[in-house]
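W.,

You were right to be curious about this one. When I first looked at the sequence I had no strong expectations either way, so I just let the prediction run and decided to look at it fresh. Below is the sequence, 300 residues in total, followed by the output.
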Amino acid sequence: MTNHGTAPMRDDLRAILDVRARRPQAIAEAAAARRRRAALLGDDNKLFIIAADHPARGALRAGDRPMAMADRADLLERMSLALRRPGVDGVLGTADVIEDLLLLGALDDKVVVGSMNRGGLAGTAFEIDDRFTGYDAAAITRMGFDGGKMLFRIDPEDPATARTMESCARAVSDLAAHGLMALVEPFVSHRSDGRVRNDLSPEAVTRSIAVASGLGTTSAYTWLKVPVVDDMKRVLAASTLPVLLLGGEVSANLDAAFDGWRKALQMPSVHGLVVGRTLLFPPGDDVVGAVDGAVSLMRE
């Protein structure tokens, strides 16, 4: 893989395996010792987050590689490399990934967002019933992290949507009670050919934003994580909440993805990017080049 090799990380992985087996309390100690960032947003009012919560949903594919995210040493090396690049503000992940990064000492001065609902496993009959099987607000607070992220898919034909919506609303309220960011990723979704597919029309994304903005007892700490679609100015007019753009699937044409992000980043409510597979497994496997390119366009 361009920019790095896996041998050093495999040595680190052996140390992680030993700590997890012999001294699991080291994870809480590492969290307590972590140097925390003073504020969520930097001086430039932007936020750039690397995401890796896909494996906990069984979503291991990146582009044309069906098991790309299945090798933890490789994933951690790619993430550590990305987190070291100037302009990368933090990470979004499930407990297992974040704790590995804590043990590697990779999260000092970084924003850390815990992924909360990973129960809607990819490709299952119960995918829309996206139960909270990851972080909760109490654990995020105890670990000294900065917020929690939840996926909120609205399937008009699946009654499980109501349970997911209620759970997301409760999580928004709980995070706000602790003064923590609630990062909500909303979609209108439909099942087609046995798969759940997100509707990326401007009308559907607008509707999902409108519903997500009203979740919980307060929206004071709610941020939205939304895809880049057509007519973003009209879409983002649906809410006054701060927005981070999601990276989505790995694109064969990274320049086209960058162009879409560049235009959307000009919107006043948009404060940055949350990108995972697109930058961690880019075409040509140049992680440094992909991350630095995204940072550059965001800081323009």
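Here's what jumped out at me. The longest helix spans residues 160-177. And, maybe more interesting for your project: The CA atoms of residues 31 and 117 lie 21 Å apart.

Coffee later to discuss?

I.
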